[in-house]
Write a structure and sequence with these properties.
- With about 375 residues, the protein is of the alpha+beta class.
- The longest helix has 17 residues.
- The strands form 6 sheets. It has a 4-stranded mixed β-sheet. A 3-stranded mixed β-sheet has the order 1-9-8.
- The protein has 3 domains: about 90 residues, DnaJ domain (Helix Hairpins); about 140 residues, Heat shock protein DnaJ, cysteine-rich domain (Chaperone, DNAj Protein, Chain A, Ribbon); about 120 residues, HSP40/DNAj peptide-binding domain.
């Protein structure tokens, strides 16, 4: 038993012609033998959908089908119109021909775009240091790419000769034929088998590029990294990509920046974060210490009574803003280091310190208001 044609295409009985076309086009693209060669089930689905479309896309045949079902359109008892059910009329229809049937214009299975076409874009991942990203740098990279052959100017023909127009296709690169199908006249376009779709034939190929018109080589390119560059920043170099086809312009080169992690600094946006160890004495009595920054060493004051993990901000010592306007800040977290391997004299002095110092003072105990004032001070810098 044949399935209902509407069920085959997955549309309602009130579907418009556009809906029927869209449904058939989807099934045909997914199940065409060019897409699934050797898949008998896919071929059967394609045949079934094509038969359903042949009926439902024709107003007169659709009306008879709606009234009498398959009996109304099975004129010869063979399952379709004039033996259409055996798929013989569609054996040579390519996937690209289905596009042409709906859209027109050459999109045959061997279709090749004629005329100049732009070359492909290239991507190069460049790893740089944090300092190079912060202050900018000049780097030279080497990339493999296809360029236009200078010996023949991209024609592929030996110097002093020129490609000749293909007599088989007249220079179009395509052979257009018309075949009769249940849809009516169906024009198909296929790649010319004489010139392979190029439209021209090279009798004497260029010895440098062997007739391809392009050569593979390695090129050195100077890359200027702007100050304040971020991870993943893409730098575009117009015309530095692959050579175009048939005289078309070259593509572009995109250099994507990867910033390698730093052992000391951590970057967050345009701010820099780091940790600095300080001694118990420096934390208790206060001290001036040297702090490394991207801009060089700077002096930073540690106030007395500083607790471990306290964060200090050094203004303007972060990463420059890429579009100007100064730099971010550097945030320094101090870590109080507990001394180890003390001498007996040192231990004696610490015990004496413990005896004469109240426990809450040793712990740095503060009132709620003391902590609140400190938090407000940190917040406003």
């Amino acid at each position: 038993m044949k399935r209902d044609y509407y069920e085959v295409l997955g549309v309602s009985r009130s579907a418009s012609l556009d809906e029927i076309k869209k449904a058939y086009r989807k099934i045909a693209k997914e199940n065409h033998p060019d897409v699934k060669p050797g898949d008998k089930e896919a071929e059967e689905r394609f045949k079934e959908a094509t038969e359903a479309y042949a009926v439902l896309s024709d107003p007169e045949k659709r009306a008879k089908y709606d009234q009498y079902g398959h009996a109304g359109v099975d004129f010869n008892g063979q399952g379709g119109f004039g033996g259409f059910g055996d798929f013989s009329d569609f054996a040579d229809i390519g996937l690209g021909d289905i596009f042409e049937m709906f859209f027109g214009g050459g999109m045959g299975t061997g279709f090749r775009r004629q005329g100049p076409s732009r070359g492909a874009d290239l991507r190069y991942d460049l790893t740089i240091t944090l300092k190079e990203a912060a202050f900018g740098a000049k780097k030279e990279i080497e990339i493999p790419l296809t360029t236009t052959c200078q010996a023949c100017g991209g024609s592929g023909a030996a110097p002093g000769t020129n490609p000749r127009t293909c007599s088989q296709c007249g220079g179009t690169g395509q052979i257009r034929t018309v075949q009769r199908t249940p849809f009516g006249q169906l024009a198909t376009t296929r790649t010319c088998n004489v010139c392979n779709g190029e439209g021209t034939i090279i009798s004497t190929p260029c010895s440098k590029c062997q007739g391809r018109g392009k050569v593979r080589e390695r090129k050195r390119i100077q890359v200027n990294i702007p100050a304040g560059s971020e991870e993943g920043l893409s730098l575009r170099f117009s015309g530095k990509g692959e050579a175009g086809e048939r005289g078309g312009p070259p593509g572009d080169l995109y250099v994507v920046l990867n910033i390698e992690p730093d052992d000391f600094f951590e970057r967050r946006g345009n701010d820099i974060y780091c940790e600095i160890p300080i001694t118990f004495v420096q934390a208790a009595l206060g001290a001036e210490i040297s702090v490394p920054t991207l801009h060089g060493e700077v002096k930073m004051q540690i106030p007395e009574g500083t607790q471990t993990s306290k964060v200090f901000r050094i203004k303007g010592k972060g990463v420059p803003y890429r579009r100007g306007g100064g730099c971010g800040d550097q945030h320094v977290r101090v870590i109080v280091v507990t001394p180890t391997k003390l001498t007996e004299r040192q231990k004696e002095l610490l015990r004496e310190f413990g005896r004469i110092t109240p426990a809450d003072q040793q712990m740095g105990k503060k009132t709620f208001w003391d902590r609140l004032k400190e938090n407000v001070k940190d917040a406003i810098g």
